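Notebook p. 47: complex prediction with phenylalanine.
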Amino acid sequence: MKDRQNIHGSWASRWVFIMAATGSAVGLGNIWKFPYIAGENGGGAFVLVYLVCILAVGVPIMMAEVLVGRRGRQSPINSMREVAMEADHSPKWALVGWIGALAGFLIFSFYSVVAGWVLAYVAAMANGDFLEIGSEQAGQVFNQLLSDPQTLLIWHSVFVVLVMAVLMGGVNKGLERATKIMMPALFVLLLLLLGYSMSSGSFGEGLDFLFHFDPSELSWNAVLVALGHSFFTLSLGMGSIMAYGSYMPKSASIGSTVLTIAALDTVVALVAGMAIFPIVFANSLDPAAGPGLMFITLPVAFGHMPGGQVFGFLFFVLVGLAAWTSAISLMEPGVAWMVERFGLKRAPVCIMLGIVVWLLGIGALSSFNFGSDIALFGLNIFDFLDFITANIFLPLGGLFVALFAGWILNQRITQNELAIAVPSVYKAWSVMIRYVAPLAVAAIFIFNLIDKLG
Ligand code: PHE
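Predicted complex, structure tokens below:
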């Protein structure tokens, strides 16, 4: 088949795709969420399950998403439709793209709030607000920020503008350019912090916490959290990677490219853990502090260490960059679809969608102040959005993509796109995508349900 053309453009090279997709994957999920959920779920046991999920479920599904995106060469909604029709199936498969785009908006609305906290902390660190501070005071600083809707709103707005500005530039002048500057900066900063943690933290204790496997720490809920997180951290199940895949050069091999992205994402999460936990232990703080780990615990640690102000500042800049490149990818499926559907330019689309997510974000940020009484299934708006997206929307989206690639698309299409030279490797992917990934997702859902009901 002749390769379709993408009206939005295409990445200059395979490496640009790797960097862009890694930029999407590496975000708050790696640096904020992974360490705190690992901390809450007992460290090593959780980490092991998470790694298995990445390899057995995440990688095959990421390959499927890239495959569909590159085949369709459009926004996820339209690519799903196009490729389904090519395989003589119902155009209704576009629904998977719709659910994904919706999930992108929902994730963005709380993501942007956390990214706003990060920006506030960049300023606070630069200002030296955490010098010699105790945990109690640090907790107060964080709670004060949360209880102040105006300040939250300002930072949330700044973040929305930053993200939309890049999206407006389009694939090459926006996404690609931003990626090329931000990703190398991110890796340099991460290595600097690791070095800092190795020299001033309790490195051995941190490693032990992350890699010591104790099965008694594991619960079904922890397995669900690990599965959900493997989707979240790889940006799967909602179309980000599918959208980025639609800009991927035809000559690049999907398998090796996806393995590189998944490996980089995993390394960043582990290195973030290795940078954070030693500092936590060196200062006798609690590894299971939850979402506040990065915003209360770490600043206390930085406030007491030599060079802490500089490294604390660099740390939050790093997290901010990571959040930025991820948030861009949350919106790209929606932006690309609007451009295709209504023939609009990117600028008006970005402004419109920017307003929508800005408004949604206000709902999320109100959870900590004027909207704290609102409860959905016993969760505040913020926690509810986090829970339903990571634990329901993304695994379900991933499940449908797996079923689509494994059972709906014929071998001619998948073989042609994946272009795997070794038959047994193709066969292995096919088994993973048809059986292992869907069954794993379904089983974990069911066991959790039983666990919750029982
Ligand atoms: N992968 C990003 C992170 O780990 C979050 C994300 C999820 C981005 C889904 C895009 C799509 O922070």
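Notes: Residues 24-25, 27-30, 107, 232-233, 235, 238, 240, 326, 329-330 surround phenylalanine (CB under 6 Å). The chain has a mean pLDDT of 92.
Next step: compare against the earlier run before touching the bench.
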